[in-house]
Amino acid sequence: MRAKQQLWIVAVLTLLCTLSLSTFAQTVSSLWRADDLAFEFVGQVKNAPPAGPGLPATSVQYGYLSHITGLTDSQIFASSTVKDETTARYTFYNDSVRLSLTVHGNLRIVTRQGTTTVYYNENPAGDLTTPNPDSFRSGIPIMKTTWRHQVIFDATDAVQYFFVNFFHKVTWSDRFTAVEGNSVRLASPGQRLRTSLVGSKDPAGLVDGKFAGVVTKLGTE
């Protein structure tokens, strides 16, 4: 009888532990209410002309997540004092192709489509200064999206501010064990996200622009 009781206690504890991990893993995305904040991010963009006849112009955008609703700063950054790309555990990398360029007076309107991959890295070493784009995809892939975006900027503006809206669909996400030992999952396939950002050209000319923005949850299919 005692052996049965011990087995029952072990089974209950195992179930509670599993439920606790599962609950935490679901908490992150469940806190992203529709039309509310999911992420804040910082990054930069590098554009490239077509690689050959008949091929589209391309663009990569990369950077780090500076805030994630549902996680604390100590979970997002590897340092309590330095909170930038060098300590950010969550980074992103976008690949895209240009679909169109429309001239509308002083405005230039660029439409692209592409993919985003979000990475987790226990030992971050992002480099926006050199820059080193690959440093933002050196971690474990944890989420992927497909998207379409529209960029608007004034070609006569010396600073050349640009405004961008992305519409994402989460195509894949995975649970992973964060540095604190918690099981984390950022989102579920089918979820819709919107990115809004503002940027300007890089004064140093190393990249085509630097930007910051937010991501909000639009809903799930």
What does this structure look like?
By secondary structure, this protein is mostly beta strands. The chain has one domain (2-220). 15% of the residues lie in helices and 48% in strands. The chain has helices at 2-30, 73-76, and strands at residues 37-48, 58-68, 90-104, 107-120, 140-154, 162-173, 176-177, 183-184, 191-200, 209-220. It is globular, with a radius of gyration of 20 Å.
Using brief descriptors, characterize the structure shown:
221 residues, mainly beta, 8-stranded antiparallel beta barrel, two-stranded antiparallel sheet, 2 helices, 10 strands
List strands and helices in order, with pairings.
Blueprint: H1 2-30, E1 37-48, E2 58-68, H2 73-76, E3 90-104, E4 107-120, E5 140-154, E6 162-173, E7 176-177, E8 183-184, E9 191-200, E10 209-220
Antiparallel strand pairs: 1-2, 1-10, 2-3, 3-4, 4-5, 5-6, 6-9, 7-8, 9-10
Strand order of the largest sheet: 1-2-3-4-5-6-9-10
β-sheet strand percentage: over 45%
Give a count of the beta strands, DSSP E runs of length 2 or more: 10
Helix-and-strand structural type: mainly beta
Compute the separation of the termini in Å: 50 Å
On the 0-100 scale, what is the average pLDDT? Answer: 87
Q: Helices and strands, in N-to-C order?
A: HEEHEEEEEEEE
